[in-house]
Write a structure and sequence with these properties.
alpha/beta; TIM Barrel; 2 domains; eight-stranded parallel barrel; 10 strands; globular; 50% helix; two-stranded antiparallel sheet
């Protein structure tokens, strides 16, 4: 890309061919996509050195995208396991993945994921900085500024397309949290690392204080910044509190600085939010962050469903996406309980894809209704192969169909000979389809 960032190329009127293809895939005009990118309402995360097969647009009126988190821990750190999760995520239809590794050969895992991934890859560099400080100096709070920026540069240099950076964890917002106590305090790992560092060293967060340095690194590789929500609520009782909103104000200010520097930016959003506060959370982000794409974890709408949090997140994700969230970070059934398996990854991606599509359908995103109509027509014709082909998870649909075969192959074992569709058809009823 000629050493210039995507934003810089667009400002000079140089439109990469890939944007024309992406716009076509989204049912958008290329000019509309370019305008959204220039205004900061959309991003196309694509590191200069990551030649991926399936780049994607986030925001700007495109369909809602889904991210899947991978990554090792100190208890489970196998490279093969992470590559299996990557395959599960991609096969299930994830639009992007994030490597959140904190254990084992972190560099090796990251590089292998980037090399194998056909979709954009994100990371959280502060995790590796914390691991290094723990290993080399015995404490996470012993992180140095150089540790942080070395990790950022290492990750960008390895081809990572977007990085989560918790620049809004500042001394000021931390004071706001102290003055307004929570039930669950800080649940973001990156937020906790930096809050602990600030409290121990009595100094400002280097990612905030030296934001221009961060921009220089991101600019050199054309890596997008995902401004992390270090003060996101970790339970519904803490949602939309002063610390969360104060951090969001800081992120909005930093997003403007990033755009001016030619660096693409999106904003990360709250984790646990009750249904009645989701719409207001989206409106606040869009207002305070000048329309930047909103990347939300879930949101998880109740705290009491461990083992089913892919469902709590899909409920929140559908509502959030309908009200304007652009990027859903999946949640798996193992959230709050363990590191996910490839099967958990698959279930998490599918749940978030259903949420995203439900929102696209309600918002009238091009192509969404046609997919549902194709399914409806196959159902009306009792065309089981067609229904399976159009299913969001064809393998599961086929497996369930074949696990309970009816005596009459035209119907299913739910209604058998009392199938409503066949009953109406045999009665001779015909109606002209009203919507094309």
């Amino acid at each position: 890309m000629n050493g210039k960032t995507l934003l810089e190329r667009l400002r000079k009127g140089d439109i990469p061919v890939v944007l024309e293809r992406l716009a076509g895939d989204e049912g958008m005009e290329t000019e509309a996509l370019v305008e959204a990118l220039l205004e900061g309402r959309a991003v196309v995360p694509s590191n200069l050195s990551h030649a991926m097969e399936r780049p994607c647009v986030v925001g700007g009126g495109s369909r809602v995208k889904v991210n899947a988190n991978l990554g090792t821990s100190s208890d489970y750190a196998g490279l093969d396991d992470e590559l299996a999760k990557l395959k599960a995520a991609v096969d299930a239809g994830a639009d992007a993945v994030m490597d959140l590794s904190t254990g084992g050969p972190i560099d090796e895992v990251r590089k292998a994921v980037v090399a194998a991934s056909p979709v954009p890859v994100g990371t959280v560099p502060i995790y590796q900085a914390a691991v290094r400080a723990q290993e080399e100096r015995g404490s996470i709070v012993a992180i140095t500024e150089e540790d942080i920026f070395r990790a950022v540069e290492d990750h960008c240099a390895s081809g990572v397309d977007f990085i989560t950076v918790h620049c809004g964890v500042t001394m000021g917002v931390l004071e706001t949290l102290k003055a307004n106590p929570r039930v669950a305090d800080i649940v973001s790992r990156g937020g906790a690392f930096l809050a602990g560092w600030i409290l121990h060293n009595e100094r400002e967060n280097p990612l905030y204080e030296q934001f221009d340095r961060l921009l220089e690194i991101a600019h050199a590789f054309d890596a997008a910044l995902s401004l992390g929500d270090g003060f996101r609520p970790g339970c519904v009782a803490d949602a939309t509190d002063r610390a969360q909103i104060q951090e969001l104000i800081v992120l909005g200010e930093l997003a403007e600085r990033a755009r001016k520097a030619g660096v693409q930016v999106m904003i990360e959003g709250p984790g646990h939010v009750p249904l009645d506060q989701i719409a207001s959370n989206i409106a606040l982000e869009k207002r305070l962050c000048h329309g930047a794409p909103f990347y939300v974890l879930g949101p998880i709408v109740t705290d009491v469903a461990p083992g089913y949090d892919h469902i709590t997140a899909a409920i929140g994700g559908a509502l959030a996406a309908f009200h304007g969230a652009d990027f859903l970070c999946y949640v798996t059934p193992s959230e709050h309980l363990r590191l996910p398996s490839p099967e958990d990854v698959w279930d998490g991606v599918m749940a978030s894809r259903i949420a995203a599509h439900a929102a696209d359908l309600a918002k009238g995103i091009p192509g969404a209704l046609h997919w549902d109509r194709r399914m409806a027509r196959h159902r009306k014709c009792l065309d089981w192969e067609g229904q399976i082909r159009e299913a969001i998870d064809p393998e599961r649909a086929r497996r369930l169909r074949e696990s309970s075969r009816p005596r009459d192959e035209e119907v299913c074992t739910m209604c058998s000979e009392f199938c409503a569709i066949r009953t109406v058809r045999e009665a001779g009823f015909q109606a002209k389809e009203g919507i094309s």
